[in-house]
Design goal:
Its cofactor is heme b. With 220 residues, the chain is mostly helical. Helices cover 73% and strands 0% of the residues. The chain has one domain: Four Helix Bundle (Hemerythrin (Met), subunit A) (Up-down Bundle). The radius of gyration is 29 Å and the shape is elongated.
């Protein structure tokens, strides 16, 4: 869901479609998170295990709460057409930063969870003796770290950022008809006019400089 805007082959798709895909993937992830939390609480209650006593559970519940708020505000502000544009522009940096923060928090929660499970479950042989189960889960943890680093790296690359909607028209496949708007052509014409004026002014300045140098030589 995070990198759906960062994939170059999706840049020619409409931004509205990518918004729906982004929101849909996040909604699926939210449903899976809720199902997982219900399963954990039911397992703890059935096994007479205390709830919410570890740092893993504290951070995990915090991540789920903030993720639900992030999803709700994302729907209300960026997907529905009611929010004004200045509000969207103001909240977009916060939305991006909080999304990356929640993602990193979820990775940390998963690492703490598998470590906690290994310590409590592996008794004979013990976790400290590095049995095959411990090696397998430790490798899984390393893969989670690599996965998180890759996602954060892709999300932080400026050249992977989705171009503005006007520039995205130029990225259409062969057969498309990218056309500039009247405003763009006006801006281009204005810039060409400014460049021609600069050339005329620079040529005039060179002529004046030569005349001044000639006058100084004659005076000397």
């Amino acid at each position: 869901a995070i990198i759906v805007y960062r994939l170059p082959w999706t840049w020619k798709c409409s931004k509205l479609l990518m918004k729906f895909i982004h929101a849909g993937l996040n909604t699926i992830a939210m449903i899976l998170a809720i199902v997982s939390m219900v399963a954990v609480f039911e397992f703890h209650n059935a096994s007479n295990i205390p709830n919410m006593y570890s740092l893993h559970s504290w951070i995990g519940l915090t991540a789920v709460i903030f993720y639900s708020l992030q999803l709700f505000l994302g729907f209300a502000v960026f997907l529905l057409p009611f929010a004004p544009v200045p509000l969207r522009e103001a909240l977009m940096p916060i939305h991006v930063y909080s999304g990356l923060t929640i993602f990193a928090t979820v990775i940390a929660t998963a690492l703490m969870g598998i470590t906690e499970k290994l310590i409590f479950s592996l008794k004979n042989p013990a976790y400290s003796t590095s049995p095959p189960e411990a090696t397998f889960v430790n490798c899984l943890g390393l893969l989670l770290v690599i996965f998180g680093v890759l996602i954060l790296w892709m999300a932080s690359r400026p050249h992977w950022k989705r171009p503005p909607e006007e520039n995205a028209k130029l990225l259409r496949p062969i057969g498309g008809t990218p056309e500039g708007t009247e405003e763009e052509s006006t801006v281009t014409d204005g810039s060409n006019t400014d460049k021609s004026d600069l050339r005329i002014n620079s040529e005039a300045a060179r002529k004046n400089l030569k005349l001044d140098e000639a006058g100084q030589r004659s005076t000397m």
